[in-house]
């Protein structure tokens, strides 16, 4: 899996600005696995913490951020389009 540099991160930031939400905050996490370390990312958007689907080698850490941003953007767009969206409850989520 390979991502274009910051494609999803940029789209997520644009969506947050469009919905007048604070910009996303990325949290890099690691897990020691044998002699190696796996890296992933969580992104905080609208008070929610969304975990990336995959773990990556350290040289591919940007892919972890992109993965988390893609999931967060999908969730953000889905929640704002659904008829029972959180917007009607006073929250974006």
From TrEMBL:
Question: What is the protein name given in its UniProt record?
Answer: DRBM domain-containing protein
Read off the Gene3D superfamilies from this record: 3.30.160.20
**InterPro entries in UniProt:** dsRBD_dom
- Which segments constitute the DRBM domain? 10-76
